[in-house]
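Problem 3 from the worked examples.
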Amino acid sequence: MWWNIAICMCLLWIAYQDFKQRAVNIFLFIVLALLLSSLNLSKGSWEDKYPQVLANSLFLIFQFGVILLYFKIKTGKWQQVMDRKLGWGDIAFLCCLALYMPFLNFFLFYAISLFLVLLVTFARKDWRDPERGIPLAGCQALLFGGYFIAERTGYIIWEQAFQKLLT
């Protein structure tokens, strides 16, 4: 039970810092990564979990590679995409989630959360300022909090839900 509370508090603190400062203390990502990976390992052995973590990590590497390549083609030069277009906190947060979520859940969460953040960005003019940026990690922290609570309370059993969608 304390895992759940600690993870939810960490997610809320990440969201608060990202919304307020557009920066999150690295300590929060380290704590979140330790909590999520420990919780994940408490549900099974490393041999059961590492293929999911590996698949999530390879997906993120591929995704970030595509982003870098896109901006290379668009601008004609390699630029600091991770500092200017996508924050390191956003990357760190996704890496934390990669330690916990099964691949299909991770992939769908990533796609749906980006779409929802894009919709909110269209609605909020103050998020369109390129200097200030979008609080992506904060938004995704709140969305993951909803996912996490639904999963941990048994409100939704994701494996069964995806199985029904696929059959």
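Problem 4, a separate protein:
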Amino acid sequence: MTPPQTQIQETIAIHPPVAGASLRGWVVVADWEMVDGRQVLSRLSSPGTASWDVKGYLHEALFGLWAADDVGIWEGNGS
């Protein structure tokens, strides 16, 4: 596990959506602006995560049908 992965893992793991939930995996997407003004997206995932799992996480996050209760469970969702 790289230092950034360790920090992200520890940060996410201490904020479960409900008590007793276990973190199985994660994906982070970051938007960067380069010095020359170009915009670049980068991605980092939990260690050992297969590429099809990463694609599945991203697809579900964008296109999954989230019940209102599911989104509202976690107080850190920005709502």
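Solution to problem 4. Residues 65 and 71 are 10 Å apart (CA to CA). The radius of gyration is 15 Å.
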